[in-house]
From TrEMBL:
This is Caleosin-domain-containing protein. GO terms for molecular function: calcium ion binding; monooxygenase activity. Residues 281-290 have a biased composition (Basic residues). It comes from Aulographum hederae CBS 113979. Belongs to the caleosin family. Residues 291-302 have a biased composition (Low complexity).
Amino acid sequence: MPEIASFAAVTAGEAKPENIPKGHVIHANKDGVGLAQTDGVAPTDDSVKPYKTALPNVPVTVERRPFVPQEDEKLVDAGTARVNIAATKEEPNGTHENNWAERHENQTVVQQHTAYWDADGDGIIWPLDTYRGCRRWGWNPILSLIAMALINLNLSYPTSPSILPDPFFRIHIARMHKNKHGSDSMTFDNEGRFRPQNFEDLFAKYDDGNKGGLDMWDLLRAWRGQMFVWDFFGWSAAFFEWLATYLLIWPEDGVLRKEDVRRIFDGSIFEWKAHEYERKKTAKGSKSAKGKMNGKNGQKNR
């Protein structure tokens, strides 16, 4: 519970947002009304907002608090879905590394999410495209084959322009929004837009300790907390999506950073990880070649 600061000027008639010092909220208890210093942590009672986000008698609402935008927030209209940028409070204008947002301004965020596998830009992801994309990350052939099977077998039919299944299990990017499923973070809407509020909620609710990311236990709580009743496909899809995300990023400290997860949603991290693997492989090859050369020179000098 935040420390209560005595503030006589806070009265029913003067308790307006502009009269409240930054870093404080109005706090009412049995002793009267005063100011509570928040220290950047969401308050546990009513705040200056004209609504409540938690009730003490409903513990789950206290445990999982949603993201509440502040007045000086760079992210405006967090509840409004963005069609072509993955906007967060840290990156309100999306990804600009390598001009990502500009180069993909004519694609929805869910289409951007899959653009990495469409190497030839024809709008179609063949199973072989999926396999090659996974191999570019350094995944071994078996893991890449498993990923290819899970992705194309499950995601092909909903995107098919025909009522009949595609015999080649191709994924059509233009209809990628048809693969929306339940029991996930609900960050993508049904048309493939990116919902900043839902993304921020994910970390506000499940980032235990406010460490700026999600560890394995946070992910497990998020997976269970987002479950829809009897949604077996959604449960399994969300599980494998988070597993793949963890395997790809593979954080050294075990924490999936918020920015990395954001870039998973808009797909910008996929190409970056492929280039990172290529750089490591090149550096390793150069080091190995240098070692062999030094070995040969040593033998000549004997």
